[in-house]
Amino acid sequence: PQNTGIGTTANAGQSFLNLRSLGAERTLILLDGRRIVPSTATGTTDVSLIPDALVKRVDVVTGGASAAYGSDAVAGIVNFVLDTDFTGLKMQAQYGTSDRNDANNHRFSITGGTELFGGRGHLLGSASLYKNDGIARNGDREWFRSCSRIANPTLAPNQIIECGVRGAQFARGGLIPSGPLRGTEFGPGGVPQQFVYGSLLTTNTMVGGSGEDFALDYQLIPSVARRNAFARFSYDLTDNVSAFVEGLYGTANADYTSTSSWQGQGTAYTIYRDNAFLPESIRAAMVAGNIDSFPLARYDVDFGPLDVDGRNRTHRLVAGVDAKFGGWTFNAYYEHGENTYHQRIHNNSNINRLYNAADAVVNPANGQIVCRSTLTQPGNGCVPLNLFGYGSPSPAALEWVLGTTMQDLHVKQKVFEASLAGSAFATWAGDVSLAFGLGWREESSDQQTDAVSQSMRTFTGGYQGWPTSVAFTGQVGGWERNNPLPLKGEYDVKEAFLETVVPLLSGVALAERLELNGAVRYTDYSTSGGVTSWKAGLVYAPFSDLRLRATRSRDIRAPNLNEMFRGPVNGQSNLTDPFQPVGSPNRNPFVLGSSFGNPDLKPEVGDTTALGFVYEPSWLEGFSASVDYYDIELDGAITSLGGQRTVDQCYAGTTSLCQYLTRDANGVLIATQSPFLNIASRTTSGYDVELAYRAPASRFVSSWAGNFTIRAFANFISKLTTTTPGAAMLDDAGQNGGAGVPDLAATLSVRYDSGPVTLYAQQRFISDGALDKTLTAAALAPEDNHVASVTYTDFTATLRPALGGLDEGALEAFFTVSNVFDRNPPLAPGAFFVFGTSTTNTSLYDVVGRAYSLGLRYRF
């Protein structure tokens, strides 16, 4: 993926594959048919660990894979097959940059292989380095025009899309958002000034005015550095028995900035009339108006952004043996893998210290400015914090208020598997193939975090201004942002499996080939018991040009360590509470939400149907076409609904979810809980189409030399639904905003090879779609609830010069231009989040723009 994401919950800088858009945790990644230790507690594997210089091919099986490969393969498997027989030495070096002179990147790799001990042994090694500087700001792209879905003051429709959106609740030097002094902003040096409200003003948003879109300063793409090393040694013990040992080491480091600390709405600072830093003109106005205190909403840019430093380390050792005897093959391997993730979030505000320091007063004994709490608790270390005006907080105050969140996650995997395969017997149509085996796997996770993250949000007294309008008190997590909690758990799996291919007809009229294939696997989980997965399929070739295929399977995914054992993770957000009437001030409360693991989860169960054909006509040499239909139905899907969906589905009639909502004595929603539950069902269906044609160039232009290769891929998704009991079904197919997927994605490539020159052009197409399919015309006008299609063009030229002393093709130079026409991402804004906009869907569209890569490959 081009954009590996920005967030404060790990995984930035890593790359995950997500077949069928069912979630990366439902795609199983293999290396030479063997499991790789997960890179996260969610069980997902970072594919950037793969030694790509050695990849010979990539096998993808979509659907029907659990019986053959095990859990997590509900959507399918991706198996990276290495060239383990490679001999020689090859190197690659490249440099790239964007058209805006950012996202600068470089890469170097070296790979070598040699025979040892008279050819009985083979040593193989590969190492690579990669660095990408990322893109520092959303505002560095002209297409980021602060566009957002915002509430419509006229209520017809309820939401509108506007650009130039600004927050109406915050200012970087502090803003009084309500009360008699509403609209007072504190400028440089704390000087009071009038906050200018723009047009289309609502509680949180406006267009224009003196507010800001702080999302302009969010980092668009993180800085990422990777280092990978792979080594393998194999030895032929006899002519029929070989043993091997291999090791993989990889790192993925990501550095980026996230949002600064902010306090507003229910978490706004409370400023009292005796605050020592309060401008005298405001104090006088408070005295005249008999105002004891006011809320101060502030986006604390001068605290510095959250600085996230993530370090991911993976090592994996595998030892195995392969043997052949009497027409049978025996394979066995043992794998031990460990992943360690260290995350540090600097400049995070300690909640208790923050509000303590904000309550600054004058010490009557000596006239010095101190924290109110030090008057009764001398020596508590509190340093008073001046919040009036950008740049007013002192370095000493910030040093006391800010700290570092620490998270150390250790994931461990052990795998043993042995299998035997061969021809059991023959029928009238040919040999019956049989494979069976046993497997054992153990997964464990252990996460350690800092003491503040594990502390309770408890008002310790001695000062005033602790937030009371949201469920702060009694919640876990002493930092303002991202409070990771300890996670410790493990499970083991025992498996037995059987696979077979039974030919039924061969070489007869209207049946060039007919065979039955099947697989069954029994899996026993230490946490949830036994479950059976199976597959049954038919392959029918009425004649040599055409092959038909059909598969029906039962697939599973067991809950991962994060879903079972994660501690509560807290967050803050605005929600819409449909239990409150439209227009009520309590309809859009600012609440605290938490999600957490559930050790009682059961495996998800999926049923997959796949039908397709492959046509390779003898009358058109070089042409092939395949069309496949798939349908996956997943029951008992594990999900954490999140605060808004929990509220919505409780309102819609799923009463079992109402227990996770907390309200105060007046019925105002103040907190939500979102445990992982086997509550959802998910379905997807669609079509895959692939066309390929390879022919001499002279077939098109008689005077041309060389060959043309034309390939086209398309995926049409007809549905991608999520359903929870008592709630309306959500279909994300054809939704290009948020978490949806386009209903059509296609790639067309043309390659021309002629002697030392190769030219390659690729067109990537993403169809248009809805911005949010859940919104009716009354909620968002149809012309706004639409995202335009986009086409990206990529071009690569490769030259293999014939230089003296070098073998033909030993040296290769390449030049690539991505997004040749510099297409901007289409407008696909999300809803305004407190103080920031999101102009497009950064997980779907190209956000870099035109980019270049230049490199050399050399092979001895």
Report the average pLDDT across residues: 92
Rg over CA atoms: 30 Å
Contiguous low-pLDDT stretches (5 residues minimum) are none
Largest sheet: 22 strands, antiparallel, barrel
Strand content bin: over 45%
Compute the number of helices. 8
Structural class: mainly beta
What is the 3D shape? Answer: globular
Q: Tally the beta strands.
A: 46
End-to-end Cα distance: 31 Å
Helix content: under 10%
Plain-language structure description:
The protein has 8 helices and 46 strands. The chain is mainly β and 860 residues long. The strands form 10 sheets. The protein has a 22-stranded antiparallel barrel. A 4-stranded mixed sheet has the order 2-1-4-3, with no helix packed on it. A 4-stranded mixed sheet has the order 33-34-38-37. Strand 1 and strand 2 (34-35) form a beta hairpin. The longest helix is centred in the C-terminal third of the chain and has 11 residues, at 642-652. The two termini are 31 Å apart.
List keywords for this structure.
single chain; mainly beta; 22-stranded antiparallel beta barrel
Helices and strands in order:
Elements: E1 27-31, E2 34-35, E3 55-61, H1 66-69, E4 76-82, E5 88-98, E6 105-116, E7 121-132, E8 148-151, E9 159-162, E10 165-167, E11 175-176, E12 184-186, E13 192-194, E14 205-207, E15 223-236, E16 241-260, E17 262-263, E18 269-272, H2 280-288, E19 293-296, E20 298-299, E21 305-325, E22 328-349, H3 351-358, E23 360-362, E24 369-371, H4 373-376, H5 395-401, E25 402-427, E26 430-449, H6 451-454, E27 456-457, E28 475-476, E29 487-508, E30 511-525, E31 529-543, E32 546-557, H7 561-565, E33 569-574, E34 590-596, E35 604-615, E36 623-639, H8 642-652, E37 661-663, E38 669-675, E39 677-696, E40 707-723, E41 730-731, E42 744-754, E43 757-766, E44 790-799, E45 811-818, E46 851-859
Parallel strand pairs: 1-4, 34-38
Antiparallel strand pairs: 1-2, 3-4, 5-6, 5-46, 6-7, 7-15, 8-9, 10-14, 11-12, 12-13, 15-16, 16-21, 17-20, 18-19, 21-22, 22-25, 23-24, 25-26, 26-29, 27-28, 29-30, 30-31, 31-32, 32-35, 33-34, 35-36, 36-39, 37-38, 39-40, 40-41, 40-42, 42-43, 43-44, 44-45, 45-46
